[in-house]
Amino acid sequence: MSATAAAPIPSILLELQRTLQSVDEQQVDKLADHITEAGAIFVAGAGRSGLMMRAFAMRLMHLGLRSYVVGETVTPGIAAGDLLLIGSGSGETKGLVSMALKAQSMQANVAAITVVPESSIGKLASTLVHVPAATKEAGTTAASIQPMGSLFEQSMLLILDAVILRLMERTGQHANAMFGNHANLE
Description:
This protein has 8 helices and 5 strands, in the order H-H-H-E-H-E-E-H-E-H-E-H-H. With 186 residues, it is an alpha/beta fold. Helix 5 links the parallel strand 3 (83-87) and strand 4.
């Protein structure tokens, strides 16, 4: 058994540390700016990336922001001044590219979190956070001991949690106040 297989958590933590230290903090700040300025925030992603985006929409709701997950039955239409935030490792998922184009046609802003800034979604985004991680697609430059896009997905969740901390600071909100927006019918 390899040392990595015997102790995967320290190896995963090292990968996350290496990846997150390479993320441009100015890009993260710019994303927080766009969220603050948006009328409503729509999030989208496919597969596990989509799950990370759903978690982010929940935290935005806890902050009292109008946030929606694209594809849910209660999600309204996007409008001018709104923000569509897409999480996509490859930046080439066809359905997500179509969403970005539609959002732009409605004069909404598009932001992206991706491994590939020069991807179709990356080129459509006015705000981009580049995550130098491996994706499930072959040919990405970053190596990972983890399968498929795990490193990207984990990194994206932590980056989005950092955005929440920035938004909490900007709005003067604390976790106790946010708990007032937590689901209570469970």
